[in-house]
Amino acid sequence: MDARIGLQVGVLHERDVPGAVEGGADRLLLATEDGLSPDLGAASSVLREADVPVRVVLRLNDSHTTTGGEFARLVGLGHEFAALGAEGLVFGFLDRDLEVDVTTCRALAEGLPGVPWTFSTALDACLEPARAWRRVAGLPGLDGVMSAGSPRGAAVGYDDLLALVRSDEQAAALLVACGGVVPEQVPWLARAGTRWFHVADQVRPGASYRAYVDPGHVRAWRMLLDS
Fold first, then answer.
1. Which of 72, 77, 159, 173 is deepest in the core (most CB within 10 A)?
2. Number of domains in the chain
3. Rounded to an integer, what distance in angstroms lies between the CA atom of residue 206 and that of residue 187?
4. Residue 58 confidence (pLDDT)
5. Measured between alpha carbons, how far apart are the two ends of the chain, in Å?
6. Amino acid 1: pLDDT
7. Is the pLDDT reported for residue 123 higher than 60?
């Protein structure tokens, strides 16, 4: 396994791409500021601009659930993002009991064969995290899970997240640590086996989404992970 720890940078549009790539991002995650799927024009612009892998969010409403009516749209959108050049996708759905909706996630993954994907931070909203991690682990095509350990972010969930990856090698291998992870938390998560970190507002001046991704901010994270 490659010893390099991956850095994923969240982007909103093509103007974020140069800073992310110049700073040393290994992969980009494209979504709207609300965490929904971008339109095809925005996705096409980012994918043309980027020379690193890009994963695109598949999510059509602001909840963690989806409907039968949305499902066909999600499959179609996934195929369109892949055709535009997306390396993979990001999605994740829960049922009404706040458990992983394995049936929907499996059906969507099987509807997009050969397309790798990351389970979204919807997992952090599950009432039983340990059970949720067990349920996602066997889903087809899954190669990552975005988590901060809590729906309130890494500031709250870090201790639980660290305990998880220390006790579960499979979770450590899948984890994409996110949700406002700060530099002080990185060494401990990395030593426990975390192989990917996601940054978003941390690499924007003033931590503002009104500012574009800054290459110096990204480079600081790249240097931290390389150290």
1. 77
2. 1
3. 24
4. 97
5. 18
6. 39
7. yes
Tens digit of each residue's pLDDT (9 = 90 or more) over 33-82 = 999 999 999 999 999 999 999 999 999 999 999 988 899 999 999 999 99
> Which contacts qualify for 206-215: CB closer than 8 Å, 24 or more apart?
209/12, 209/33, 212/15, 212/16, 212/19, 213/9, 213/11, 213/16, 213/17, 213/19, 213/20, 213/23, 214/19, 214/23, 215/18, 215/19, 215/20, 215/22, 215/23
For 191, residues 6+ apart whose C-beta sits below 8 A from its C-beta are none
- CA 227 to CA 223: how far, in whole Å? 6
For residue 197, being part of any structural domain is answered with yes
> Which CATH number does the domain housing residue 118 bear?
3.20.20.380
DSSP the chain: ---SPEEEEEESSGGGHHHHHHHT-SEEEE--TTSPPPPHHHHHHHHHH-SS-EEEE---SSSS---HHHHHHHHHHHHHHHHHT-SEEEE--B-TTSSB-HHHHHHHHHHSTT--EEE-GGGGG-S-HHHHHHHHTT-TTEEEEEE-SSTT-HHHHHHHHHHHHHH-HHHHHHEEE-SS--GGGHHHHHHTT--EEEESGGGSGGG-TTSPPPHHHHHHHHHHHH-
Give me the domain span that covers residue 219.
6-226
The answer to whether residue 1 is domain-embedded is no
